[in-house]
């Protein structure tokens, strides 16, 4: 006797189409771009690295709670593109060598994990369709097949930006556990050097400070040389 309401099916179809559009690879990638731009703008406006280095609350000086809070703040700041060397120096200046190194490494792994998760969930499906060049495919294959070894090498040499390595790994088929393990192990030498430099900054002539700065300079030169060799080799092929 009563006819069904015909508007129900179009409404459902519209909802399904809207959901598909919002969850499409390029919509998620657009969201990733917005999140990263917002993080970068927040870093420029708020300057969180200044808070970490000079504005740490006095009641949190020292102690396990302070180290844990610093590690969390460190991780969030790396996602917002705050340079890790500044954060490492701040860790050493605030907590000394041992506690500062623990906080910096924890923050490094945390920040890498957050970036990897964002890139994997929001960007992988869209960006993998762009891996058509020979060198892009080679890099993707290297990370996908030899993820731990490749990421360990990238972390040991400071020439590759931290965020770039995170998102390259996220777009590849590399697993999260080997990525985090390689990040934690490979980041130890360079992070330790900056933390020691920060903890010994008040004694710039001390052997520890000079050794740390020497290591930083040598690894920087080595990374630049390796990058120059690879660029020259690619140009000649």
- Counting DSSP H or I runs of 4 or more residues, the number of helices is 11
What is the CA–CA distance across the termini?
78 Å
> N-to-C SSE series?
HHHHHHHHHHH
Count of extended strands: 0
Strand content: under 5%
Spans of at least 5 consecutive residues with low confidence: none
Description:
The protein has helices at 8-22, 25-46, 48-54, 64-79, 84-127, 134-145, 147-156, 162-171, 176-186, 188-199, 207-236. The chain is mainly α. The radius of gyration is 22 Å and the shape is globular.
Brief characterization of the structure:
The chain is mostly helical and 237 residues long. The protein is built from 11 helices and no strands.
Write the layout of secondary structure elements.
Elements: H1 8-22, H2 25-46, H3 48-54, H4 64-79, H5 84-127, H6 134-145, H7 147-156, H8 162-171, H9 176-186, H10 188-199, H11 207-236
Helix pairs in contact: 2-5, 3-5, 4-5, 5-8, 5-9, 5-10, 6-7, 7-9, 10-11
Keywords, separated by commas or semicolons:
237 residues, mainly alpha, 0% strand
């Amino acid at each position: 006797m009563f006819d069904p309401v015909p508007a129900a099916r179009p409404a459902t179809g519209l909802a399904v189409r809207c959901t598909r559009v919002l969850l499409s690879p390029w919509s998620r990638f657009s969201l990733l771009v917005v999140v990263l731009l917002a993080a970068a703008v927040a870093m420029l406006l708020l300057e969180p690295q200044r808070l970490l280095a000079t504005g740490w609350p006095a009641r949190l000086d020292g102690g396990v709670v302070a180290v844990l809070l610093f590690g969390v703040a460190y991780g969030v700041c790396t996602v917002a593109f705050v340079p890790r060397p500044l954060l490492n120096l701040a860790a050493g200046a605030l907590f000394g060598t041992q506690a500062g190194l623990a906080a910096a490494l924890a923050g490094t792994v945390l920040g890498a994990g957050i970036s990897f998760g964002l890139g994997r969930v929001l960007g992988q499906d869209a960006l993998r369709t762009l891996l058509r060049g020979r060198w892009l495919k080679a890099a993707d294959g290297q990370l996908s097949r030899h993820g731990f070894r490749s990421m360990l090498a990238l972390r040991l040499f400071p020439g590759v930006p931290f965020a770039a390595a995170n998102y390259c790994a996220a777009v590849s088929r590399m697993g999260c556990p080997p990525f985090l393990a390689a990040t934690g192990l490979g980041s130890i030498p360079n992070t330790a050097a900056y933390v020691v430099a920060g903890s010994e900054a008040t004694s710039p002539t001390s052997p520890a400070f000079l050794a740390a700065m020497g290591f930083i300079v040598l690894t920087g030169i080595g990374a630049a040389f390796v990058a120059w060799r690879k660029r020259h080799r690619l140009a000649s092929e």
